[in-house]
């Protein structure tokens, strides 16, 4: 088996948003093998020329490189932000873990 590269996708949502609903949809729709929703944190960023500070949650999405385009499109539909964070990191894992990720996101 030569699976394509694993990918970790990072996004954030407001601490008041329902990150668990987004996570569940991505896994149920086979766009992600696993989604971790981390505890609330404070994010400081520039938006439309103004420095903002908000409570957010980091969302870590584990998927295959082959599912990135579909994941990006679906996350844009589900995400409450005008411009959601969508950072893709190439990753590698053990053969067994990589197989599990690829099997979990395979289109049927």
Helix-strand layout with pairing:
Layout lengths: L5 E9 L4 H10 L5 E14 L2 E15 L3 H11 L8 E5 L3 H11 L3
Antiparallel strand pairs: 1-3, 1-4, 2-3
Describe, in plain words, how this protein is organized in 3D.
This protein is α+β, with helices and mostly antiparallel strands and 108 residues long. The protein has one domain (6-105): 2-Layer Sandwich (Alpha-Beta Plaits). It is 30% helix and 40% strand. It contains 3 helices and 4 strands, in the order E-H-E-E-H-E-H. It has helices at residues 19-28, 68-78, 95-105, and strands at residues 6-14, 34-47, 50-64, 87-91. A 4-stranded antiparallel beta sheet has the order 2-3-1-4. Strand 2 and strand 3 (50-64) form a beta hairpin. The longest helix is centred in the C-terminal third of the chain and has 11 residues, at 68-78. The radius of gyration is 15 Å and the shape is elongated. The two termini are 18 Å apart. The model has no long low-confidence stretch (mean pLDDT 94).
What features would you highlight for this structure?
108 residues, alpha+beta, Alpha-Beta Plaits, four-stranded antiparallel sheet, elongated
Q: What multimeric state do the chains show? A: single chain
- Termini gap: 18 Å
Strand content range: 35-45%
As a percent range, the share of helical residues equals: 25-40%
- The appropriate CATH architecture is 2-Layer Sandwich
CATH topology: Alpha-Beta Plaits
Count of folded domains: 1
Order of helices and strands: EHEEHEH
Summarize the structure.
The protein has 108 residues and is of the alpha+beta class. Helix content is 30%, strand content 40%.
């Amino acid at each position: 088996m030569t699976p394509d590269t694993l990918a970790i996708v990072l996004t954030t949502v407001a601490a008041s948003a329902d990150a668990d609903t987004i996570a569940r949809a991505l896994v149920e729709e086979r766009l992600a093998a696993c989604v971790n929703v981390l505890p609330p944190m404070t994010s400081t960023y520039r938006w439309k020329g103004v420095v903002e500070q908000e409570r957010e949650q980091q969302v870590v999405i584990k998927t295959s490189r082959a599912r990135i385009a579909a994941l990006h499109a679906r996350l844009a539909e589900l995400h409450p932000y005008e411009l959601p964070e969508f950072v893709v990191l190439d990753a590698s894992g053990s053969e067994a873990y990589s197989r599990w990720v690829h099997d979990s996101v395979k289109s049927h």
